[in-house]
Amino acid sequence: MKLLIVDDSNVIRQRIARLASDTRLPETEIVGQARNGAEALSLFVRHRPDIVTMDLTMPELGGVECTEQMTAIDERINILVVSALSDKATAIEALKKGARGFLYKPFTDDQLVDALLEMLPA
Q: For position 122, what pLDDT does the model report?
């Protein structure tokens, strides 16, 4: 499984990266970590990950717009929105643009692992 981690928080990126090696998940290769949507799109095109964890509130290019652009490139991409936003409208917008799941921050290790497992192709 190839994973791209997109979040403007270094702490969150490192936490997701650490949890990607959880034994409940298939072998995971982190193909990139992006601080914003613009970096994420560049890494996405270069590495074609299986799953993307996507923050919504980021500088340069936000998560909703980035999700829309990624799904335009590859409609099969599995995007898991990971956000502290309690604004349900924004979360729903991301899902309408192609995200396949949503996880609220703060999250537990188990919640992230379960959410990633749900993203895996059957």
A: 66
